[in-house]
TrEMBL record:
Domain Copper amine oxidase-like N-terminal: 38-88
Name the record gives this protein: Copper amine oxidase-like N-terminal domain-containing protein
Organism: Paenibacillus plantiphilus
Keywords attached to this entry: Hydrolase, Protease, Serine protease, Signal
Signal peptide: 1-21
Alphabetical list of PANTHER family matching this protein: PROTEASE DO-LIKE 5, CHLOROPLASTIC (PTHR43019:SF23), SERINE ENDOPROTEASE DEGS (PTHR43019)
Length: 270
């Protein structure tokens, strides 16, 4: 999609304390001080350089626009310039029907102690016949996990995990009869649409948000609402592919955290 901005001048003013200094450290152009311009660290070259004129910094429109990936068209009759910029295509997202279908592969986890007493809840989802959740969901006094997918309820023993990685906060168990989700390990861009699917506070929920950034500890930060019990749930992209394992709750905070699927894929490859 293209967006056009019509302007009537071929220069703009930068508000800066240095703009009013009438020094000529970069030389002169027709008696005026030259202003050196860089875009993302690269100097912008143009026939007519940036200049200080009457206390304002005037920059070459075409050179600046093209250095930012835009195009400029000049209309001599109207004495006006038109700048055209490229915009990213809008992500359409998933329908509620599609999201609910994905939710069939996500189950609520009941932590059971040695007396078969429930001591907590979490979430899990299936990939290639493996029910994936967080290590901390199975850690502690839990001896077994009962996972309810709606269509089936399966109980697994914590000691029978097919993989477990405390440092990565991941653990997996063999299950059967549940359709698995697809993984996507590609890098995300800030603002990419995401959906958190899990069981916060023991109730099935799908929340929409956007990817923000990767934290210093390597978790994915996103702003879809989650809560206690969401741990181990699936974070999916707008194509319905799992991009992370939900690990942190954001009750009272704008952001939640998820373990990138690359770490999960490493465990599955083992």
């Amino acid at each position: 999609m293209k967006k056009k901005l019509l302007i009537g001048l071929i220069a703009f003013t930068m508000i800066s304390g240095t703009a009013y200094a009438a020094t000529a450290i970069n030389g002169l152009y027709k008696g005026r001080a030259i202003v050196k311009v860089t875009v993302n660290g690269t100097e912008v070259k143009s026939i007519v350089p940036g200049q200080l004129i009457d206390g304002a910094t005037m920059l070459p429109l075409r050179a600046i626009a093209e250095s930012l990936g835009a195009t400029v068209d000049w209309d001599g009759a109207k004495q006006s310039a038109s700048i055209t910029t490229q915009q990213q295509p809008t992500q359409t997202g998933l329908t509620l029907t599609q999201l609910n279908k994905l939710g069939e592969s996500v189950g609520i986890v009941y932590q059971l102690d040695a007396q078969n007493k429930q001591i907590g809840t979490g979430s899990a989802f299936v990939v290639d016949g493996i029910a994936v959740t967080n290590w901390h969901v199975a850690d502690g006094n839990a001896v077994s996990l009962m996972i309810d997918f709606g269509s089936s309820v399966q109980t697994v023993q914590v000691k029978d995990a097919v993989f477990k990685n405390e440092a990565a906060d991941l653990i997996g168990f063999k299950v059967s009869g549940v359709t698995g989700l697809k993984l996507n390990t590609a890098e995300l861009k800030k603002g990419d649409k995401v959906y958190a699917i899990g069981f916060p506070k023991g109730r099935f929920a799908i929340t929409e948000g956007a990817y923000q950034f990767n934290s210093l500890v390597g978790t994915m930060v996103f702003d879809a609402g989650i809560g206690p019990g969401s741990s181990g749930g699936a974070l999916v992209n707008s194509a319905g592919q799992v991009i992370g394992v939900v690990v942190g709750e954001n009750d009272g905070s704008p952001n939640g955290h998820a373990i990138p699927t690359k770490k999960l894929q490493d465990e599955l490859n083992k």
